[in-house]
Q: What sequence folds into this?
């Protein structure tokens, strides 16, 4: 027996659907979630691939997510789509709202999609890449749980608040990135704890507000934003835009709602779509070509173009026709399926 | 003779208008620029107060800016206003486009203003604060000159690319911030050079790509983005959004256009305005109240709320009825007025 399991992308999808439906999630939600896990696994974005099933099942078993919620789409304003996820997972709500968002962005030049009352646990880049595949520029953001202290403070009131951006490219996949506005993703701190590795300085503080490199002390204390007061300001902006602006919870309010269950956070999500053709009309192709020169000048000097590693992994996976995951992880995930359903 | 000069805000405005018109700028442009310099001086944002006249006059004397350009407004799409600044300064173009941007944001929920072919040299926060004073959320960004190397690279291809955000507050001035996506503002590096002070590590690299704390070596080499690869990704996003998206120059192209004149960069600017009332309707007041709780939780734990220092300075200035600037600066600025016009 090898220590890795080899699965085709279809098998990744089917397996993920099976684990989630066996834990009570409706088929439409399971398929929406599994599609993103499959894409993340394809791009070797391990933390949001099949590994995410652990978090997903924990959330399902905590009983807070509505497992068969039917998202409701509201054509809210000429530039605003609102989708009430009805306390279900966010991705089916995104599927429901995306066509109207694309239509509005093409009609107006810029439009927003507010997903409300959702449990979000995926990476953001697959969501903005979908906008770029329609030829649109995409931005996305959401709060999470209050784990991060603002720059200069010691009390965690901000989420890890991810931000994502995608830009359409004529040849090849979109230029897309996402990042947590915390210095490190929460999952990575947990990985450091499990492996007994110290954190890089600046990642967080202990419960008394002192700098520490001990992962457990940071998990009990507070994480810090990336980039000092600038990253902290961005994180606050994300709280406001994907929280009170759209009528949803801040990370602090989401944490209170959770009551210690450690389930995925309940909150909103904001996506913004922009149509280059509505800014520069028939000239947009030549302007997009100038963007290529900038992206090439970045990658050409040996700087990593954000998303570049993912796209290289994607090419490798598509050529190989399968992905490999640690055998131990595969067995842990299989064990998430109740015995009677295995 | 004291070593500071005391001026009322009206005197700041009039003096700035006088320096600019004496150097050939049309009255409408001079008044638009002077209004922002006055507001920056009021908030003790020294680098963008009267001090900015030095840069402004250098740009005027370089002969590249069109001193009497009349901005032209285009109602480009339901969610897009475009203003051609016709190679004039940006602020008169902003004045021209702002009413239609506000109208579109209120009608659609979200709208964009693209200012094209402009010379921008002000701080961004006064511009987004104007949107917040209309009850709107504001974002703004622009490229500059290619002074910054992307994370992991050594060749400067990115601008210092400022980003700004403003959020309306019921009582008191808006929550607003702006920051350069470079680790340090270019003007601050120049100040370090003038004062013979070393830079903090991580500010820049020399012409051979090695880390250095020597300001002159960084000015000859490359500045670095704030926050490593995350800040670098944001800077790239700003290049794309306020450059090719709206049909304007990237920082690299602007640098080439400048041909070493060291004038203000020629480029575009993107503003986005969002109307909370179009997202949450009649409930927006209660949601904005929740935002207050978040902002209070930030300031309440001793963390500096972005913009807080400016607002404290504003209150001080308004109470005192005047601002103080170094006598030497005042005399240097007076000397910018040709003798015959003094």
A:
């Amino acid at each position: 027996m090898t220590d890795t399991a080899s699965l085709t992308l279809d098998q990744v999808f089917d397996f993920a659907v099976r684990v989630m439906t066996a834990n009570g999630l409706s088929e439409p939600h399971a398929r929406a979630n599994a599609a993103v896990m499959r894409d993340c696994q394809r791009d070797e974005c391990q933390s949001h691939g099949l590994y995410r099933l652990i978090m997903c099942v924990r959330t399902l078993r905590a009983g807070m997510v509505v497992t068969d919620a039917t998202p409701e789409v509201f054509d809210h304003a000429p530039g605003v789509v609102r989708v009430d996820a009805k306390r279900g997972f966010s991705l089916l709500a995104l599927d429901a709202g995306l066509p109207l968002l694309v239509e509005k962005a093409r009609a107006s030049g810029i439009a927003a999609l507010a997903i409300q009352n959702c449990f979000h646990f995926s990476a953001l880049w697959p969501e903005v890449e979908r906008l770029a595949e329609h030829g649109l520029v995409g931005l996305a953001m959401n709060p999470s749980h209050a784990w991060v202290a603002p720059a200069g403070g010691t009390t965690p009131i901000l989420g890890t608040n991810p931000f994502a951006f995608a830009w359409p490219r004529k040849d090849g996949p979109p230029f897309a990135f996402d990042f947590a506005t915390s210095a490190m993703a929460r999952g990575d701190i947990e990985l450091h704890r499990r492996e007994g590795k110290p954190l890089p300085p600046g990642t967080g503080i202990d419960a008394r507000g002192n700098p520490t490199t001990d992962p457990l002390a940071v998990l009990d204390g507070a994480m810090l934003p990336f980039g000092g007061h600038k990253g902290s300001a961005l994180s606050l902006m994300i709280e406001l835009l994907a929280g009170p602006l759209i009528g949803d919870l801040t990370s602090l309010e989401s944490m209170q709602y959770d009551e210690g269950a450690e389930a995925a956070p309940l909150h909103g999500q904001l996506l913004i779509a922009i149509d280059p053709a509505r800014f520069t009309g028939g000239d947009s192709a030549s302007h997009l070509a100038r963007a290529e020169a900038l992206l090439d000048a970045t990658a050409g000097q040996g700087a990593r173009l954000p998303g570049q590693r993912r796209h290289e992994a994607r090419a490798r996976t598509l050529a190989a026709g399968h992905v490999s995951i640690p055998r131990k992880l595969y067995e842990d995930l299989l064990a998430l399926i109740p015995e009677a359903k295995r």
Remarks:
- Residues 90-108 of chain A form the longest helix (19 residues).
